[in-house]
């Protein structure tokens, strides 16, 4: 007997269900004994206990409003539906539908998958920028470390969203990631200032995407998702926008040439040296974003 059978036998409701019992092959007597053990019985001939008192009378006597064993029937019947719809229980059935899923709107599930793609795309662009800055003929290892840390941070955001998706019984569907540019040289602005302005634009774009996702969750009336977005992503994103704007201002103030060189030293102190994030002398990685 597999795990699935055990689950159903222990949690089956005492009230009659229109569908035939899921584990008929184990005998109704055995099942009913287990049900009585968990939920009690309404049949006074079965021995009688305080659990035998009808729900309404029980409520009148005790004043208790929440009747967990009556109210849980709806959720138990959802579990039954999952078994019945998928046919024969077993590993395939377990993978076919979430048992944890409850009031999770399909449009919101799809919107979270889209945001996962946004975060991965951001991560990919920052990784590309990091590789560009790490070139020997560009020579900005502080910028490379900064963009590598930014790339890691965006991937972390994608991971948070993936965990959120599975937490609610949704399915993570990863989509194609748009290939980023490989060249970020700009004669007019210089690669340092141009890359920081690009990063600021992307962070603001992402902030807008997250607020759109929050609006979808609000529309669905899903307080758990809005809370998750507010606590783990939206506030952090606002800080990322401010940080990117600060860097653009500093790059503009510092100017090209030596100004960019000084700014790179400053980024090295904060993020480390180059794609590998060390201190430039082969010592271990510095702190991330
Ligand atoms: Fe992000
Ligand atoms: Fe970000």
TrEMBL record:
Would the keyword Metal-binding be found if you checked this record's keyword annotation?
yes
Q: Which domain of life is it from?
A: Eukaryota
Q: One Pfam match, by short name?
A: Ferritin
Q: Which reaction does it catalyse?
A: 4 Fe(2+) + O2 + 4 H(+) = 4 Fe(3+) + 2 H2O
Record flagged with keyword Metal-binding? yes
* Protein EC: 1.16.3.1
Give the keywords, sorted: Iron, Iron storage, Metal-binding, Oxidoreductase
Q: InterPro entries given for it?
A: Ferritin, Ferritin-like, Ferritin-like_diiron, Ferritin-like_SF, Ferritin_DPS_dom
Please report the stretch or stretches of sequence annotated as the Ferritin-like diiron domain.
102-255
How this chain assembles, per its entry, is: Oligomer of 24 subunits. There are two types of subunits: L (light) chain and H (heavy) chain. The major chain can be light or heavy, depending on the species and tissue type. The functional molecule forms a roughly spherical shell with a diameter of 12 nm and contains a central cavity into which the insoluble mineral iron core is deposited.
Q: What job does this protein perform?
A: Stores iron in a soluble, non-toxic, readily available form. Important for iron homeostasis. Iron is taken up in the ferrous form and deposited as ferric hydroxides after oxidation. Stores iron in a soluble, non-toxic, readily available form. Important for iron homeostasis. Has ferroxidase activity. Iron is taken up in the ferrous form and deposited as ferric hydroxides after oxidation.
- Alphabetical list of PANTHER family matching this protein: FERRITIN
Sequence similarity: Belongs to the ferritin family.
What name does UniProt use for this protein?
A: Ferritin
